[in-house]
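User: Sequence in, structure out. Go.
Assistant: Echoing your sequence, followed by the structure tokens.
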Amino acid sequence: MARPGQAAAKTAKSGDLRASRPYPIGRSSKRAVDLLIATSALVLLSPLLLIVAIIVKLADGGPVFYSHTRVGLGGVAFGCLKFRTMKTDTSAQLANLLQANRAARIEWEATRKLKNDPRVTVVGEILRKSSIDELPQLINIVRGEMSVVGPRPITAEELPLYGEYISTYMAGRPGLTGAWQTSGRNDVSYQRRVSLDVQYLHNWSLARDFVIMAKTIPVLFSHRGSY
């Protein structure tokens, strides 16, 4: 069975992606669009963000936000923000679950996700289905850590899965949405996820970003692959 990085490399080579280069770091037009959209969205969605924050806090008294370390532009680590959707002490719970449940361990190793994750709260499940949990990443975009459209933000542990395309991934800012999110999200294999990121970075254009943004809207309403 091919490793994800190897499968991505095969897909990339078939499209002659190695002959091109990822879009230049710090492309000014992309950054300008990011700032305009993120700041406008934060203002317009501020009532919703406040309501969600109150609900998350009242649900179990835990923290409102969750910051998970991800790899960003140039390999710099940053705290990717989300509304908290899991119970507290999730690291210990995950370790115990993977040790006791072989099927869950296989699923986690293959996708870094669990379709039926017992750590997710009732409120968290609703937030995930609607993708509202990811709205705090608008702050990451304003900070310059993320982009509206880009590859999925990944952890340092996932980098080896990109094989020879690790530097390609690190050539752009991770996105709030992207080709992966509009192509099935968690229903897409990790191999396919990697190849989608590589193709996006090698064929970036501002027009393509707007197309992906437009595709994101119906995907959110369909809830496909959201867990």
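User: And one key feature?
Assistant: Residues 28-44 form the longest helix (17 residues).
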